[in-house]
């Protein structure tokens, strides 16, 4: 006699060659509906169909998983900003386009956004680090300031403060989640006039 299992667990078993990547992917998916504080390694193990002990071979604790998810988040943000700059009407608007993309990405990914910036110091991934988002910020600030290091640093901080502040105000419902407002507030012609 042959028996066939029809349980969901049997259909979701792990078949990837890279368990670490599968766990990060499951964590990113979970963050679409779950606050990062509520993520559990055991739940993610069940999601990918492995034992909880298998998870610990790649992530010794929850903090290690949070760092991996934060790294994935800052990478996603950078790619989103890079695409926005490429799609902008011109180089003058590319800087503002990356800022608008920052806010829109934060609003589309609130749990991942909060996790990403709560883990920056631990992951070494601040916007002044080596990730793509940081590179774009430095590049756009250098272009806007003519390479003056002091002016570049000031503009980087100003730009980051504006976009991060706007994102947080909208996420915390202090301001409405209004796409037109994002365009009005992060406007290259009025934000940092020369």
Order of helices and strands: HHHHHHHHHHHH
State the helicity in percent bands: 55-70%
The dominant shape is elongated
Report low-confidence residues grouped into runs of 5 or more: 1-13
Task: Name the structural class.
Answer: mainly alpha
Average pLDDT metric: 84
- How many alpha or pi helices? 12
> Approximately how much beta-strand content do the residues carry?
under 5%
Alpha-carbon Rg, integer? 20 Å
Number of distinct beta strands:
0
Question: How widely separated are the two ends?
Answer: 81 Å
Verbal overview:
The N terminus is likely disordered. This protein has about 190 residues and is mainly α. It is about 70% helix and about 0% strand. The chain contains 12 helices and no strands. It starts with 7 loop residues before the first helix and ends with a helix.
List the helices and strands and how they pair.
Blueprint (H helix, E strand, L loop, with lengths): L7 H4 L7 H12 L10 H8 L3 H4 L6 H26 L3 H18 L1 H9 L1 H4 L8 H14 L3 H23 L7 H7 L2 H4 L3
Concise overview:
With 194 residues, the protein is mostly helical.
Features:
194 residues
């Amino acid at each position: 006699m042959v028996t066939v299992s029809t349980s969901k667990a049997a259909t979701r078993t792990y078949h990837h060659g890279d368990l670490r990547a599968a766990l990060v992917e499951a964590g990113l998916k979970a963050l679409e509906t779950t606050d990062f504080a509520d993520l559990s390694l055991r739940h993610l193990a069940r999601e990918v169909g492995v034992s909880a002990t298998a998870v610990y071979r790649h992530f010794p604790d929850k903090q290690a998983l949070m760092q991996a998810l934060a790294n994935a988040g800052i990478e996603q943000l950078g790619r989103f900003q890079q695409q926005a700059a490429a799609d902008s009407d011109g180089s003058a608007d590319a800087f503002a386009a990356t800022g608008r993309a920052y806010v829109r990405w934060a609003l589309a990914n609130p749990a991942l956004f909060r996790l990403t910036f709560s883990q920056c110091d631990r992951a070494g991934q601040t916007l002044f680090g080596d990730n793509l988002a940081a590179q774009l910020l430095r590049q756009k600030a250098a272009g806007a300031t003519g390479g003056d290091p002091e002016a570049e640093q000031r503009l980087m901080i100003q730009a980051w403060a504006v976009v991060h502040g706007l994102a947080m105000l909208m996420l915390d419902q202090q301001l409405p989640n209004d796409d037109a407002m994002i365009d009005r507030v992060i406007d290259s012609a009025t934000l940092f006039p020369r």
